[in-house]
Amino acid sequence: MSRRRHSDEGDAGSQPHKRRRTSEPIEIEDRLESLICRVGEKSTSSLESNLEGLAGVLEADLPNYKGKILRILCAVARLLPEKLTVYTTLVGLLNARNYNFGGEFVEAMIRQLKETLKSNLYSEALYLVRFLNDLVNCHVIAAPSMVAMFENFVSVTQEEDIPQVRSDWYVYAVLSSLPWVGKELYEKKDVEMDRLFNQIEGYLKYRQKTHVPMLQVWTAEKPHPQEEYLDCLWAQVQKLKKDRWQERHILRPYIAFDSVLCEALQHNLPPFTPPAHSDDAVYPMPHVVFRMFDYTDAPEGPVMPGSHSVERFVIEENLHCIIKSHWRERKTCAAQLLSYPGKNKIPLNYHIVEVIFGELFQLPSPPHIDVMYTALLIELCKLQPGSLPQVLAQATEMMYMRLDTMNTICIDRLINWFSHHLSNFQFRWSWDDWADCLTQDIEKPKPKFVKEVLEKCMRLSYHQRIVDIVPPSFSALIPANPVCSYKYEEETECPLPGLAMATTVSNAIKNRASNEEILIVLKDVPNPNQDDDDDEGDGFNPLKIEVFLQTLLHLAAKSFSHSFSALAKFHEVLKNLTDSDEGKLHILRVLYEFWRNHPQMISVLVDKLIRTQIVDCAAVANWIFSPEMAHDFTRFYVWEILHSTIRKMNKHVQKIQKELDEAKEKLEKQQNKKVEKQIFLTAETLLFKPHIREHKDDMEKNSEDEEGQLEEQIERLQEKVESAQSEQKNLFLVIFQRFIMLLTEHLVRCETSGVDINTTWYKNCIERLQQIFLMHHVIIQQYMGTLENLLFTAELDHHILAVYQQFCALQL
């Protein structure tokens, strides 16, 4: 738009009449969009007078800009759900003034609802359903036709051979709309609504909930139950019905216009049948409602609504909508949250903090990137320095106290958030309040949490700073000074094997030796795995890897950049040393041994080794589950490495698949063009023009050559895709097989010793297995048949098999 205006202004001297014709409609359209989007925001006038004025403006512009107004209103219904009742009132006023426009809007909304459902945009579809429902309150849509639509939604529960998540969504769409429209529908169609409620109740009783344990933030039901979302909403709606549909937190501006709206003619919704289920449909996953506070936690000021009051649902839903609409702009998002309508009637800060942590801890993944929540909380603390930091500190303390029953995945996210948050507030914290962790075993959740937080803080600062900010009593939890451990540093009474060779290699590297020269030097390194009389010296030589990599890393230990340059410079040597699976595994062992006090360096260098194809993803997985890593198996950085490795593998497959799809698309376009040209040239040839015939032969030859090249490229890419997918499947098989072996050994050991299986290590390991399933569920679903046949068989211990069954239940 701005470019068009600029060019119009440039032509003003020569053709002034053209500028007016092109720019004035655009300016009016922009003004209409601005007026509609900004209604309901802070203003000197009342909301009612703003709505009445806007309705008048839009009515006057309907003859010329009806299409634009319809598009804007349909868009805000989908994209600004937090102002739902403001826009339904506006549509109601327009319908009262122009009945035909009201009918066209309802039809446009139904079309949009069908499109969003077909496109798997279920959260947007939910807002559209809710908008249509609120139009009943504004006398735009007749209540009986809305009840008929609800009946069609609930009838989905009777469909056969569909996943449960499909039925769940349609039931949720009905229940979540009732706080807005339940009263109106019950007054008009009470018998039908009772029948609908009985159907929903019957469905909720028989639906399976195997997935719930996998999605809970806390395993303990006290102090707050972690309820499945449909069960919780059903309890809230039941209480609302018992209270005669009275709620106090939904803004209802249409009440002020009741005398005008009740005179308007209403529209019947066209019959709406939910789109049939298809295999490529992706329904929203179930979730568990996050609860951290109740009325006892906010002793001063307004009382927090109970967990089963519908007000709690409405407040949380509106706060989620605000975050969804403004998450890209943290300042705007924070300001919108703090200016929530009706904030004086509720303990808003407690609700905001609970909703933000609820999203951050949502399983399998948060709705937005983790760092957004950190930035948003920092902004909220800046805007409300006198109250919000205290609520946030209280929440942190409560989560610390409940670490024993907190899901390991959520503890990871808590560590990331807390360390990042501290780094923005000079690492100030009342550490002495957590002194209880100092008397516990280091592997217990509380001391482990503090240790991991301090390690993350060190990544965002430096070692001495962490030593200075933490009380001396916490010294056992302070991370080690991140220095390297060079085994060939100095001579000892019993010289290490390879010490002399390490000195030789070090001198060669300092003298800028080439890859070939280094390889010649390394030929003299004896192989401890072979006898002296064994002439074959090309096998796996662990000492050769140790001498070279220890020396190389020592010389490049100054920084990440130095290490990257060293690995790049001697890439050929490293590839030569790791031409076997044992070599790849050993290079990771040597790297760990050298940088064992610097987890961040290990993570970064493992990433580099994968990118440069010195080691493969399966080697990293085998290394993580190897006995040498048992000491660090429950450390946070180890799982960062594993998930980063899996993501790299997945991206690699996606990249090749994309290249293959593009090549196929290109070939298809070329073949279509060829057919079109042949039709054209055949018509020309019929006129017996020899030069046309010759031209046709040349074009066909060129086209065939290009097609042949593309077909060869597609064939090569197809092979690459199959190879990459095989590698990807193998990676998951390795990971799950290792998990099963470790967990089975633990279960057998506990059973033979008569010890309780539920140790801290077991909780951590079983929840890490859950994490693999949850974080990579889209990819893993492709290989479920293989996993079921080879690993997760009926003979497997039920403790391990339960995790797989919970995962399967997420999409059933």
Automatic annotation (TrEMBL):
Ranges for region Disordered: 1-25
Pfam family, one: MIF4G_like
Subcellular location field: Cytoplasm; Nucleus
Family the UniProt entry places it in: Belongs to the NCBP1 family.
SMART domains the UniProt entry points to: MIF4G
Keyword rRNA-binding tagged: no
PANTHER family, per database record: CAP BINDING PROTEIN, NUCLEAR CAP-BINDING PROTEIN SUBUNIT 1
SUPFAM superfamilies: ARM repeat (SSF48371)
Keyword field contains Coiled coil: yes
Name this polypeptide is given: MIF4G domain-containing protein
Coiled coil spans: 646-734
GO cellular component, one term: nucleus
Lineage, opening ranks: Eukaryota, Metazoa, Chordata, Craniata, Vertebrata
Molecular function in Gene Ontology: mRNA binding; RNA cap binding
MIF4G domain location: 29-241
GO biological process: 7-methylguanosine mRNA capping; mRNA export from nucleus; nuclear-transcribed mRNA catabolic process, nonsense-mediated decay; regulation of mRNA processing; regulation of translation; regulatory ncRNA-mediated gene silencing; RNA splicing
UniProt entry keywords in alphabetical sequence: Coiled coil, Cytoplasm, mRNA capping, mRNA processing, mRNA splicing, mRNA transport, Nonsense-mediated mRNA decay, Nucleus, RNA-mediated gene silencing, Translation regulation, Transport
